[in-house]
Amino acid sequence: MRRAVPDRGSGEATFGEAAPGGPTTQSPLCGTAFLVKKKSEVYAHDVAVKDGWQGRFYEDFEVGDQYEHPLGRTISEADNTWFTLLTMNTSQMHFNREYAARSEFGQPLVVSTLTLAIAVGQSVTDLTQNAFANLGWNDIRLPAPVFAGDTLWSSSTVLAKRESASRPHAGIVTVRTSTINQRGVEVCTFERTFYVYRRGARQLRDVRPERAE
Question: What's the confidence (pLDDT) of residue 24?
């Protein structure tokens, strides 16, 4: 197996292989001794290629399953201003501090469509990495305000699933997603229905190209 080992002379990494009894160096990256070869002597070795996270397929979903989505997201003032203006939202509650200070909130609100977009985005790694179409959102609620500086976390529960009659390579899944802030207060909930590929669907075959020699 090839391992990167620092070349202390050049500051660059060269590759070595495990070599019991041979000249070795200690790698600070993994604490294992390896034979260091000159760059001109580096050869291809057998390596274990590990697939990254592939996402869930239709077969992986079960009604009642709950997913705690792993990544939190802190919303900045720039996020709020840019998203508001990007989407042509002219409400000054989202980008005019003096205007917003006169409201009951006393400060600008994060535009609700940004809150929704982040909640959906946080759920993709667990739910829709292999989806190809959203079919709809229902019962969207915003029970508490979101402000710049808040950190959002989301989780989802599978409500229903069914096979697609018109698309045998896919199924339809409905989930309910809930988003909380750093204080644990729920700030957004909604239901979402989407098409997701079955495992082994032909549309997913050979998507990634082979590396050119």
Answer: 46
